[in-house]
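Structure ticket #2291
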Amino acid sequence: MKRVILLGAVISAASFSFAQQASDLHKPSAQQLVEKGQFDAVESPQFANPVQTTSPEKSSHGKYRSEVYDFVKVGNTFYDLQTNASVGRRTILHSDGTISAAWTFSGTSSTTWPDRGSAVNYYDGTNWGSMPTARTESVLRTGWPSIGELSDGTIYTIAHDAANGGLQMVRNSGKGMTDWSDDANKVVSNPDGNLIWNRTANIGDTMFTLVNFSAQADDDDVIIGGITNPTLYARSTDGGLTWTTPGLLPGYDSARYLDGGGDTYAIDVKGNTVAIVIGGRFKDVTLWKSTDRGDNWTRSIIDSFAIPRFEWGTTLIDPNNPVTCNDGALDVLIDNNNNVHVASGRVSYSDDDTTDDLARSGSFFHLYHWSENEPTWKIAGRLINMDGSKDVTTGADTYDITAETTNSMGADGNPANGLSYAARYGGTSISTHPSLSVDANNTIYVTWDAPIELTFNDYLANFRDVLITYSEDGGATWATTQNATQLRSKECVFACMTKVTNDFVHFIFQEDVHPGTNLQNSGTGNLHPNVENTIWYAAIPVEDLKDSMLGQNNLNVAPVTKEATVFVVSQNQPNPFNESTDVVIYLRAGSDLSVTVTDAMGKVVDVQEMGYRNAGNHKITIDGTNLTSGVYFFTLKTTDSEVTKKMQVVK
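Resolution: structure written out below.
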């Protein structure tokens, strides 16, 4: 019988109250019990602006799914830590509907990952290229790429030199090309220390980058403006050929910040506007906005940490009155009205201990949003209540998230607090790694990853899925959270959407067979073996998202019957073609699939059976070897739906 532990503490300040997770240093191992934590409406007097307690959802539905979704495989990597906090800019939706995507890659199972670097794949409108087998950089071992497109159409990646610091830029001759060439010199470097973990964006040939000094044990600390290992900013106006000297943003000083943090910052650009956010645990969230491509900046503290930085470490925090802050995993977006949006996970602390594990810190189950037009932190997305359980006293949702899921390694490099596993991603929260996007109607979308109830590995750590929601009113209200991946028996993390959404929400994510990462969570017992991870591409129709067709994948609830509607993500490629052509589709539900080919007069000339396909994305190959030159139509048919597109054969 499962023993239920309600973990909760209530904070009161004026009209503010919230239930949050506390900790039990002497609890039994989670092999003996599964911890059920109560955690619902979250709001705190430490926010720069009040948090709306309930964050009304635009729609409430009972369309619960229990099915498998498929995606398109675009790459792999043995190196599985894609970020320490914020995801960054790893995808581009080009103006013609094609997509470029980047990630940190290694093709070797060695835990030193000597071939680590940037991998790039390209979607030509229907087909992704061959999975990369080598990094784009020819010499340097790199990591943490940003990707962008310059005014002449070339694609660049910028990643850091893992051994010596500084950023290496490589370019090709255009999207989809593989002729990568390294810039002769590192584009951003500093003689005083290792600059790594970039976040780069560009407007034409004007480029902006954020970078942080390494705070690793074998690197000396660097102090600038009174800040230890600060986050620096640099700009290039000539496509990365020359850069300004990396320096502090105006108002980023030791009055509010004592140190920087790896990956605890994000950047977006649109038109002449640049938006930068810097956050981190025990820190403010500060927004810098420029409307003249970085010549001038306005600074706003949009989430103020409760304890002045110079008092941290000397001010004891009442365990019954924790303080909260962002978890450093942030994203920023400029919408079509030039308003800035920020998404973040949150954590809480009940004493002055700064360790990563949750034995002394709490973690928020939900994801939060702030924007200039809605300058109040709101719950944007909620953890999914898989079994519908409620606290009998308060009626609040309760969640089966185990201590192994929120635990991190102890000082000896092994699971802390007497537990057998640690799956926490650095210092991030339960809901973390947000990615923001906007469509032509100014609808805001956000993805993030979070653990899923009642889905455990052998050590009782919850697996994660990628969740998604949207707002059609600038963040005032948010739709019901849906589960975008629904794998449950695999770890789905680090989702990165294209900043622009069209008829489909486009994103990539990493799938691992173990919760956590090999780099952070393996320990001396090899609890997280170094296995090959998959990089997947997902294209979800906005129509289905807004009709709540994904659902929440709840257990113990019968799936609602839905038709196996077929969507074509884009035109077949190549087109015209000779032997065969490919098309990427999305199926609303699993179904047998066939392709019927007709000529220009409507005569059926070929029928190709594709067999049963799960819901989700698939790449379909149409065989044209028996077709003569001419114009044809192909019709994709499921049990409930069909869609027809034109194609051309040239022999």
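Closing remark: Helices lie at 403-406, 518-521, 542-546.
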